[in-house]
Amino acid sequence: MGKRILVVGGVAGGAGAAVKARRTSEDAEIVVFERTPYVSWANCGLPYYIGGVIPRREELFVVSPRRLASRFNIDVRTRHEVTAIDRARKAISVRDLETGDAQEERYDALVLATGSKPAHPPIPGLDGPAVFTLVSVEDADRLQAFLEERKPGRAVVIGGGFIGLETAEALLERGFSVALVEMMDHLLPPVDREMAEPLAMHLREKGARVLLGEKVAEVAQNGNKAAVRLASGDAVECDFVVSAVGVAPRLNLARQAGLTIGQAGGVVVNDRMQTSDPDIYAAGDICQIRHLVTGKPVRVPLAGPANKQARVAGANAAGGDMRYAGSLGTMVVKVCDLTIAKAGLSEREARDEGIPHYVSYTHSQHHAGYYPGARMMAIKLVVDRFTGRVLGAQIVGGAGVDKRIDVIATAIHARMTVEDLEDLDLSYAPPYSSAKDPANIAGFVAANIHRGEVDAIEPDELEALLEREDVQLVDVRTPAERKAGEIPGARLMPLDQLRELAGELDPHKRTVVYCAVGYRSYLAYKILKQRGFDDMSHLAGGFDAWKMFHGKPQII
Amino acid sequence: MGKRILVVGGVAGGAGAAVKARRTSEDAEIVVFERTPYVSWANCGLPYYIGGVIPRREELFVVSPRRLASRFNIDVRTRHEVTAIDRARKAISVRDLETGDAQEERYDALVLATGSKPAHPPIPGLDGPAVFTLVSVEDADRLQAFLEERKPGRAVVIGGGFIGLETAEALLERGFSVALVEMMDHLLPPVDREMAEPLAMHLREKGARVLLGEKVAEVAQNGNKAAVRLASGDAVECDFVVSAVGVAPRLNLARQAGLTIGQAGGVVVNDRMQTSDPDIYAAGDICQIRHLVTGKPVRVPLAGPANKQARVAGANAAGGDMRYAGSLGTMVVKVCDLTIAKAGLSEREARDEGIPHYVSYTHSQHHAGYYPGARMMAIKLVVDRFTGRVLGAQIVGGAGVDKRIDVIATAIHARMTVEDLEDLDLSYAPPYSSAKDPANIAGFVAANIHRGEVDAIEPDELEALLEREDVQLVDVRTPAERKAGEIPGARLMPLDQLRELAGELDPHKRTVVYCAVGYRSYLAYKILKQRGFDDMSHLAGGFDAWKMFHGKPQII
Question: What is the pLDDT of residue A62?
Fold first, then answer.
């Protein structure tokens, strides 16, 4: 008989670790303990099930306990809760939630994959009967039953992160009136504010109310009616509330066992996913792992990293030797017709880390403009000021966003610079891209800044500059484009006439040129710079980026 | 006055070089000479224009000569042919094709971007009136006029490369009867045969005749009727023929000037895109550049590399200092509902290069299986046997192919190994991918081979082995799956019963296990290996890959 491997938790991390352990060792005894009745189900599918995109509940279940038994010879015990770990005796205490019986199970290796639970901030009324969360099958069942029985019409979603956004989309698709309340000043807090502005605008276009910078003070309930009272004094009336204020790792077992919990709030593991006890491995949301840009420990409660960690933990628990590299926190969310994605550091995170950096903004079509159906995307790069290394990327747009974030995530993983991005030989045919892919163009623009070929000013810097100084601000768009808005105080000099009109400008005055997305202003910069303008910048990302900063993005 | 920069050719390479030269030097004099009436038009858009996907001809023109003049202060001379270069005097001879006048133009820097012309193999009748090519606007105009005036019904496309495939698609979409004739034994010769099999099958499903391994002997014409006679003796009757047998670089000017032409058949350039004459730069199809995997010179007549080279040539011609890294030959083609893509080396190319390598096959859904609309893709990796470095990738499937080829192209550029592919932190949400992205899964499978965790046999190796030896061949699929076909001589032992049935097998006999795509056979390999089977392999890519080798792929 081989090793006895016990796994706590039967979803992404646990089920993944168990099957990898089996592939590594055919003679190990492998037992999975899962608190709920369900294993290996599609966590990320819940909002789509609620929205009706995934029509049948059974589609949420990826691998059945029966399949885990027959194919992998894994003993799966659902409705079994692990209540304690005795590290000295290498045993766990397990309670059968059906019978109430408790027993002890000995292990040679233990894998902890207890995952996350919904965060419960101390908001009065958040435990009321018309308040739902959406992180488990039971949650989805409860919400689905409520929706079908009570036929409510008005929803408030609290929290503008992944689950909140996907739930808002789901409820909109199902025809509900939806209000989304976010405490921060922008949706999807991991991305920078201006990159998230299109999200709020898009959700509003789709009919949602989006309340930003609003703290929820109380959820009041009166019979079938509910109201979300905001700290600002307003109240949003509704029929039910989905609380998506975030998730917290289930650390009670790890804490009880005395495993080291780190500064990032997760179980400390090495690159073999071994905890401070070498016989105990961990995988998924409870771990803190290495951030591939900063090298620092972070928690990344996402399915991709959880699955990779599970493979490593399972292999090593069964006597293998695999390593987990770490994560870039790569993420993508679909919100109706918009996609937003991020990899690596945001500008705020780079600033918080104290890494000298600059950013670039580009706006590109997702495939050849002459091929029908091209959609715009905005790409923001965060770049190491000294080395040109790409530290992070954020993309928002109508299509092709997931592709470019994955290309740039791969580049970040490989520690590529913006000049490497320029060089990437990416696939091109008109239905898929342009001869200069949006990822290349992001590289071109950032590398131009890096090589000192152009001085770019970011929208927030320009705003501060305009308040502080008398700036010669030149709009090089056409008169027609200017009708859609302008930066106050800008003088119109369409690019195609700039060579003739440049004489009207003072070459020794602080000058900023801008256009729609930053390409023509770059050309204008080159024209004026070479005519002796000695204190000049162009606006990174153009008027589109300016609008994103001012809450009026036009991405799609 | 700055430098005088002359550019020969006004499409991707030439126009791109000219505008980059302007951005680099505001005071240079820049003149573009273009033989045709058109500059900066969408080469890659022609098949879509013929197919009606791009409805209006004017959409093919990206930047007008007027715009090049007004915005970039570039002097564009269309219908001007450059007939000779006098390097000693730094001058070119130019003929005005309208007036016939010849003149001489002096240069400080010259950029050659003369591009490609259709190849003209010595096939009798290929210059007949019902034979068309599709590499220029004039070609498209001629074909379009023919189609509208003569309302033909039956087309033969000669050549199964990019243009041939896209033209076949276009003609099918326009309702023609289409026969596609390819001399090689498979379509899209740069990819390996088995990866191209789904293309032929798909085109046949769409109603095309696909004739492989057929050489065209003659194009016969009789009034309004034509016939393509094959060397095999058959003839295909039709109303018109599109010859897409490849393109050849226009090297006459470079040759006349005595510039060094290299072994790959292109103008030799350094990484600044400088030819053997330091005052003459080149960009696009005529150049031979560095292959990023082999380091050897290659010609890559594709738009992506041309545009990047143009930027470098233009900047340097104007006094800048940029470098071109090289190319992976990354490509993608849409053929009706199928996409096929390649980056880096094919298996055949790796073999021809003498690089010890292995391959892996994986079949994955392009996004979460439980989210509606998931399509399959097959990924083939070619891997350096010693280092695990990814040498190349080929992907064919229904959706998401362009994304994965770009991710893997980025990985190849960064010299990543298959273990790095395992680690890539790619974006996941159900509409975009799975928690284990197809690129990760390709990495998992290849890395398992690399680490010696499994011995994989490739379909062609298995075929040879079965002819040579008495092999214990085990099919671990279900009885239901087996109805769709099997490898002759295989014994059925469904994976879920394998642990019980293994005793019926001889552990000391050469054993090969297979399933549908290679995952269950990998599990079976692990089960049997650990039971003492000492001479065992599993079939890479499973029965799906086997079928691809035997011309019956089931990708979509």
Answer: 86
What span, in angstroms and rounded, lies between the C-alpha atoms of B127 and B121?
10
Q: What is the pLDDT of residues A261-309, one digit of tens each?
A: 999 999 999 999 999 999 999 999 999 999 999 999 999 999 999 999 9
Q: Which residues neighbour B441 within 8 Å (Cβ) at sequence distance 6 or greater? A: B362, B364, B379
On whether both A218 and A262 belong to a single domain, the answer is no
ipTM: 0.94
Whether residues A353 and A423 share a domain: the answer is: yes
Distance CA B393, CA B381 (A): 5
- Select from A293, A426, A515, A522 the residue whose CB has the most chain B CBs within 10 Å, as the one to mutate to test that interface: A426
Tell me which chain A residues have a C-beta less than 8 angstroms from the C-beta of B70. 496
List Cα–Cα distances, A50 to A139, A168, A177, A255, in angstroms.
10, 10, 15, 34
For B325, what's the count of Cα atoms within 13 Å in the CB-facing half-sphere? 16
Residues A241 and A253 in one domain: no
What is the C-alpha to C-alpha distance for residues B258 and B272, in angstroms, rounded to an integer?
Answer: 19
B328 falls within a domain: no
For residue A308, give both structure tokens.
């990779």
Instruction: Nearest chain A residue to B62 by CA: give it.
Output: A370
Confidence (pLDDT) at B1: 65
**E strands within B101-160?**
102-106, 109-112, 116-118, 131-132, 154-158
Could you please report the per-residue DSSP string of B90-104?
Answer: TEEEEEETTT--EEE
- What are the residue numbers of the active site of B? 44
Contact B420 A413 (CB under 8 A): yes
Claim to verify: residue A111 and residue A11 sit in the same structural domain? yes
CATH number of the domain within which B69 lies: 3.50.50.60
Q: How far from chain centre, in Å, is Cα B455?
A: 30
Q: What residues have CB less than 8 Å from A295, skipping those under 6 apart?
A: none
- Using the 8-state DSSP alphabet, how is residue B490 labeled? P
Question: Within 13 Å, how many C-alpha atoms sit on residue A210's CB side?
Answer: 27
| Domain end among A245, A265, A281 | A245
Q: Do B372 and A53 lie within an 8 Å CB cutoff?
A: yes
State the pairing for strand pair A240-243/A154-158.
parallel
C-alpha to C-alpha distance for A341 and A334, rounded to whole angstroms: 9
Q: pTM for this structure? A: 0.94
DSSP code per residue over B194-208: HHHHHHHHHHHHTT-
Clarify whether residues A446 and A460 are in a common domain: no
Number of Cβ atoms within 10 Å of the Cβ of B246: 18
Residues A173, A178, A184: CA angle, nearest 5 degrees: 120
- Note whether A413 and A445 are same-domain residues: yes
CA neighbor of A312 nearest in space, from A278, A273, A277, A268: A273
Same-domain status, A432 and A344: yes
Tokens (6 digits) for B77? 């001379």
Tell me the CA distances in angstroms from B199 to B6, B145, B215, one per residue in order.
Answer: 43, 29, 19
The residue range of the domain holding B467 is: 456-549
Looking at beta carbons, which residues of chain A come within 8 Å of B173?
none
Residue B554 pLDDT more than 60?
A: no
Q: Are A434 and A376 contained in the same domain? A: yes
- How close B52 gets to chain A, by Cα (Å)? 11
Confidence of residue A12 (pLDDT cuts 50, 70, 90): confident
Residue with tokens 């070089």: B17
Contact B429 A308 (CB under 8 A): no
CB contact under 8 A, A420 and B428: no
Q: Measured between beta carbons, which residues in chain A are less than 8 angstroms from residue B520?
A: 71
pLDDT in the model for residue B556? 44
